[in-house]
């Protein structure tokens, strides 16, 4: 796509530029941050002052275009803009100042009902040299609204902190994360590991351990053993991974004699805040179960459903993912999806609406589902994505984090206590979000 500007000399009195703009939800969200918004009978609106941005951007980018500079405007707003409005934007050259190369544009905007929403003059210093902007397609923006974890934190603010065994916090990130979670009143940390190492890290990073309980352990494996024991005796009501390897900690959790297993399969759930998706998205299992069979998938699905209830999703929609939407014996994940749906029909999985097999696009995009003529109560609006195996789940979750700028929190369910299982690559924000989810689960288990 190519946009070439109009020079001051080319502009004539009375010359007009006209375009239309469909108001999308992303427009409402962006303008709402600047001008405020309201909900009226389910309709989201913002004051028409938001049109100022559209009109001035039109002058800079299209008429006169690149090289233009907005000097002043006296725009006035009338009424409200609503999602799906069709705005008609008109700029008319009303006067020119040769000495200053100043052009006054008479701006006008009305909606599809003919209602005037904005009007007034815009003073533009017009370009005097030709410029051209080239791009393959019109640029778009994604507004990152961190509503998912903000809502979770609001819930945790009403709950007391959870005594938490922090396993082997012997590096900066794991120790700092635990202490920040304590500072945020999410946890009461019990640090389990070699005391000299823990104190050395705290001293090097300027972290105060005043009043913090430390349970000494010889090494990382012994740290995991003692932390699990604290949970078995009830001294700790949650477990948080530190700087040891996941397998080392989980081997102690999974031990049939001294671990934290229950009748339910242990599984991992990512709670994801995806900017391009309007609701929280749960992805399971991307960290624990490598190639789960049908019975394991039933528990994995139920664990995620239970978590969704705790997060406030009364009847979550569960998409059982595969590469296709039809059942075929050549692809075992489609068979499992069909059987899980029938198990839900028989009450073996409860508290949610299940459908599958569904491909990823059909699970999260209503447009994709309609294109493929998929009639489903889940398609396009999934709350939970159940993946076929750990490889697909891990890649899906990390792609959403790195390519789609999603925030995530990870939690392990199905054990006697909730477990925060973070990656060494996770930042402090992710670790705190995981701790917030853990707090909600721990209180729900009491």
TrEMBL record:
Pfam family, one: PTA_PTB
Keyword Acyltransferase: yes
The keyword Acyltransferase is assigned to this record: yes
Gene3D superfamilies in the record: Hotdog Thioesterase (3.10.129.10), Isopropylmalate Dehydrogenase (3.40.718.10)
InterPro entries: HotDog_dom_sf, Phos_Acetyltrans/Butyryltrans, PTA_PTB
Domain Phosphate acetyl/butaryl transferase: 222-438
Alphabetic keyword roster: Acyltransferase, Transferase
Highest taxon of source: Bacteria
PANTHER family per the UniProt record, alphabetical: PHOSPHATE ACETYLTRANSFERASE
NCBIfam families per UniProt: PRK08190.1, PRK11890.1
Name by which UniProt lists this protein: Bifunctional enoyl-CoA hydratase/phosphate acetyltransferase
Organism, as annotated: Chitinibacter mangrovi
């Amino acid at each position: 796509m190519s946009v070439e500007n109009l020079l001051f000399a080319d502009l004539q009195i009375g010359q007009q530029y006209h375009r239309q703009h469909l108001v999308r939800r992303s427009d409402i969200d962006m303008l709402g941050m600047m001008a405020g918004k309201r909900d009226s009978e389910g309709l989201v609106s913002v004051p028409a002052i938001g049109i100022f941005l559209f009109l001035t951007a039109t002058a800079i980018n299209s008429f006169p275009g690149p090289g233009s500079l907005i000097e002043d405007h006296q725009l006035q707003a009338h009424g409200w803009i609503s999602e799906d409005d069709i705005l008609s934007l008109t700029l008319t050259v009303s006067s020119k100042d040769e000495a200053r190369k100043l052009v006054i544009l008479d701006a006008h905007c009305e909606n599809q009902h003919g209602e005037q929403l904005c009007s007034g003059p815009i003073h533009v210093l017009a370009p005097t040299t030709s410029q051209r902007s080239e791009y393959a397609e019109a640029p778009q923006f994604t507004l990152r609204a961190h509503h998912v974890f903000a809502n979770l934190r609001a819930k945790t603010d009403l709950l007391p902190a959870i005594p938490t065994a922090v396993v082997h916090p012997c590096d900066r990130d794991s120790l700092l994360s635990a202490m920040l979670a304590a500072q945020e009143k999410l946890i009461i940390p019990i640090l389990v590991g070699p005391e000299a190492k823990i104190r050395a890290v705290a001293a090097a990073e300027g972290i105060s351990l005043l009043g913090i309980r430390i349970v000494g352990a010889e090494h990382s494996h012994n740290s995991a053993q003692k932390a699990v024991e604290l949970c078995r005796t009830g001294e700790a009501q949650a477990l948080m991974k530190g700087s040891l390897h996941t397998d080392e900690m989980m081997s102690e959790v999974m031990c049939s004699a001294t671990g934290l297993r229950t009748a339910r399969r242990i599984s991992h759930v990512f709670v994801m805040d995806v900017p391009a998706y309007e609701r929280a998205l749960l992805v399971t299992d991307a960290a624990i179960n490598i190639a789960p069979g049908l019975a394991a998938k039933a528990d994995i699905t139920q664990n995620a459903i239970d978590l969704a209830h705790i997060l406030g999703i009364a009847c979550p929609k569960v998409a059982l993912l595969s590469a296709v939407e039809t059942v075929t014996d050549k692809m075992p994940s489609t068979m499992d999806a069909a059987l899980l749906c029938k198990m839900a029909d028989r009450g073996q999985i409860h508290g949610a609406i299940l459908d599958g097999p569904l491909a990823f696009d059909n699970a999260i995009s209503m447009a994709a589902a309609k294109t493929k003529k998929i009639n489903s109560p889940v398609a396009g609006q999934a709350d939970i994505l159940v993946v076929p195996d750990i490889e697909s789940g891990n890649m899906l979750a990390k792609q959403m984090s790195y390519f789609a700028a999603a925030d995530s929190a990870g939690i392990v369910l199905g054990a006697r206590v909730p477990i925060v299982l973070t990656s060494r690559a996770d930042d402090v924000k992710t670790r705190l979000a995981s701790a917030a989810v853990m707090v909600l689960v721990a209180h729900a288990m009491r």
